[in-house]
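pipeline stage [seq->struct] | target=RUFY2 protein | organism=Sagittarius serpentarius | residues=367
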Amino acid sequence: QLAIAKNNIIKLQEENHQLRSENTLILMKTQHHLEATKVDVEAELQTYKHSRQGLDEMYNEARRQLREESQLRQDMENELVVQVSMKHEIELAMKLLEKDIHEKQDTLIGLRQQLEEVKAINVEMYQKLQVSEDAMKEKNEIIGRLEDKTNQINATMKQLEQRLQQAEKAQVEAEAEDEKLKQEYVNKSESLQKEFSQKEKQLLQLETDLKIEKEWRQTLEDDLQKEKETVSHLRIETQEILNLKKEFLKLQEKNKQLKRICQDQEAALQELASKLSESKLKIEDIKEANKALQGQVWLKDKEATHCKLCEKEFSLSKRKHHCRNCGEIFCNACSDNELPLPSSPKPVRVCDSCHAILIQRCSSNVP
């Protein structure tokens, strides 16, 4: 039992030693944790001090801006009293401008119709020109073929004339030989008769050949006459084509004149479009002035929790700013622009969208 007790004591001593070591580790961990928490508390205290200082500065700045905005509101109320008297004159000017715009739109519609008619006439003239050019090409080809045929016929005629002259010469020579044979060879009548009969046969054959060649020549002359008639007909057609060319040149001149008229009308249309855009810009200016006269919507600070453009939430560090043109509330990044307005000749804060619209309007008004 004593040995068992000693073993238990040894085990308890070992457990006690382990517990002491664990206790020391826990104490060290708690000390490190306390030190870290102290550092965090000191950092939070410093940040709280800095934020408190910044909040005080922002509060003072807000009070100053509130005073400025109240002063601006008083000035705008005074200007509103002055601008109410101008409202009736602006409405009359708007009516006159709308009437002028309607008249210009009617003239634009008429000019566009005239332009479409001119374009249709140009297309029709171009089609006629293509048809006449195709017909002229075909007729020129036919004339070339006919000239080739006439040259061939003339060559064949010359060949036939040469053959006819040769046949006539042969006939004259045969007759001369016949006479000589009659005078010299009277005694040899039988042989001469045989030869004469042969010559007569040759003569008959030559006469038949001559008749055939005459008929062939007659047919060739008839063909030549027909070809001459076709050539004369084609010459008449070429004359008509030349007349068509003259008409086409006249049509081209008319087309050029119509194109000039069309260009003048397009220039007039461009001028009318520029005037129309200017009148529209004037109407927009008058409408905006009318809105300003009727009472510009000045959004309250409590109604805005997010920026109108970037939709970021307002906080102590992200302050609210009013656009002096539209009256909406934006952050500093979305309203970091200054421009003079009709309500205030000095440059005032405007948002990015109003800044872009006002710059575009100024650039369109500049010639």
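stage status: PASS
auto-comment: DSSP finds four helices and four strands in the chain. Strands lie at 321-322, 329-330, 337-340, 347-350.
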